[in-house]
Specification:
alpha+beta, two-stranded antiparallel sheet, about 160 residues, Beta Polymerase, domain 2
Length: about 160
Amino acid sequence: MEASEFDEVTFFRALSASGARWLLIGRRALVALGLPVLTADYDFWIDSDHLEQFNAAAKACGLHPNRTPDDARAVGRYVLEGDERVDVLLARQVSTRDGVVLRFEDAWNRRQAVVYDGPVSLAVPSIADLILTKKWSLRPKDIQDIDLLEALASEGKKP
C-alpha cells in the first residue's frame, strides 16, 4: 500500500488563502469542534460564485473536480478526487427533511472560526446551523451527531 501524498494542513492553508467562501460541514466539522467522531472524507458547502477559487486551491493539493464548473453549478454538487475524497455542495439553500430552509448566506454570516493550525482557521457553521445540515439526510449517524452537537451547545459553547 502506497502512502497518501495528501497533506491536510497544506489543504486547509490553501483553502484559507484562496479567498473563497466555504464552510466545513459533515463530520470533519464535528472533529474540528473537538467531538469524538470518525470520518473518511471531507464535506464542504461553498458559495457557488467562488467555485473556481476553491478548485484552484484544491488543485494545488492534488485534488481535481469530477465535473466542469458549469456542470457542477447545474447539479449543485460535485466531488474533488485525488488521494482524498472531498464532497462539495454548491446549493444556495437546502431544506431539512421537515422543510426548514438553511441558506448558505445565512450560515456564512453565523459561521464560527475554529483555529486549526497557527494562523489557519476553519469556517464552520454555528452549532445550530450544523445541526440543520445534519437534518438534511437524517441518517442514523446524523442523529448521533445531532445528539453530540446538542450536548456541546448545552455545555455553553457558542450556539
